[in-house]
């Protein structure tokens, strides 16, 4: 056998090994990316569950949350208004973090069907609408556009047995 043929066969085997290695690495990267996205989604949902937990476990927070979401900030005294604004900031900040992760393709594709509808429901409630009018400037421009779009397209919703008309406010 000729040394040129042996050299060509060795190069062919080496090239095939490189291709197989690259295919394997591509598969591993896809799997790692998918796992990272699911982990990021879990982190977002865990954060939101953590900051909203007191709504379920603490009767005082439940009362403030219910009065604010049903009647808006005007239904609260000064102390409870501060409590709700702080709670709403923590909640909405979690949604903003998720939105930023989505923009950087760091969340799974099903984000839109899992997270954004919950945000839309919150933004239909009087307390969160009042909160947004008061504090929207502390959020990023892109996230503000998302939330403003949700607010402008809201239909009347039913929460806690009460129908709330979504009041559309056009800012100039």
Q: What is the tally of beta strands?
A: 2
**What structural class do you assign from the helix and strand content?**
mainly alpha
The number of helical runs is: 7
Q: How are strands sequenced across the largest beta sheet?
A: 1-2
Oligomeric state, counting identical vs distinct chains: single chain
Low-pLDDT segments: 164-172
Q: Radius of gyration in whole Å, from Cα?
A: 25 Å
Q: Secondary-structure element order, as H and E?
A: HHHHHHHEE
Tally of discrete structural domains:
1
The N- to C-terminal Cα distance equals 83 Å
- Helical residue percent band: over 70%
β-sheet strand percentage: under 5%
Task: List strands and helices in order, with pairings.
Elements: H1 3-57, H2 59-71, H3 78-103, H4 111-114, H5 116-123, H6 126-135, H7 141-152, E1 157-159, E2 162-164
Antiparallel strand pairs: 1-2
Helix pairs in contact: 1-2, 1-3, 2-3, 3-6
Write out key terms for the chains shown.
two-stranded antiparallel sheet; 74% helix; disordered C terminus
Structure description:
The protein has 172 residues and is mainly alpha-helical. The chain has one domain. 74% of the residues lie in helices and 3% in strands. Strands 1-2 form a two-stranded antiparallel sheet. A hairpin with a 2-residue loop joins β1 (157-159) and β2 (162-164). α1 runs antiparallel to α3 (78-103) and α3 (78-103) packs across α6 (126-135). The longest helix is centred in the N-terminal third of the chain and has 55 residues, at 3-57. It is elongated. The termini are far apart.
